[in-house]
Amino acid sequence: PPVLNVVSSLKWHYMHEQQFTHHPLLVLSNFGLQELQVKLMASMFQNMFPSINVCRVISLNSIKRCLLIGYNAEMQLLDFRHYSVKVVPVGVSKGLKKLLQEKFPNMSRLEDISELL
């Protein structure tokens, strides 16, 4: 069977240069079971990625990815999801939002910068 390229199959893929320069935020779900193999899996995943202390994160922009791993004990299956995280400004005008995201809006229709803000 042909190999599926996940990025090219997405309708809106979001990739940028700095996405893989930082470690992902790891979220483990349903790994609290007392079985030895489940503890071993949780320990393995925790040691694959350095821990991120969310309370000490200086800038939210430094977290670019989130890795969710869930364990289904009944079926003994792992659910693995890898997300790209993007911080966007909320509650500001459309023009100001573009400036904050380092995009340059078309200002040819405007007479003054105050119309943008």
TrEMBL record:
Molecular function as annotated in GO: rRNA binding
Pfam family, one: Brix
Main subcellular location: nucleus
The protein's name in its UniProt record: SSF1 protein
Cellular localization per UniProt: Nucleus, Nucleolus
GO cellular component: nucleolus; preribosome, large subunit precursor
Domain Brix: start-end pairs: 1-117
Entry coiled-coil feature ranges: none
PROSITE patterns on file: BRIX (PS50833)
Record-annotated membrane-spanning stretches: none
BP GO terms, sorted: ribosomal large subunit assembly; rRNA processing
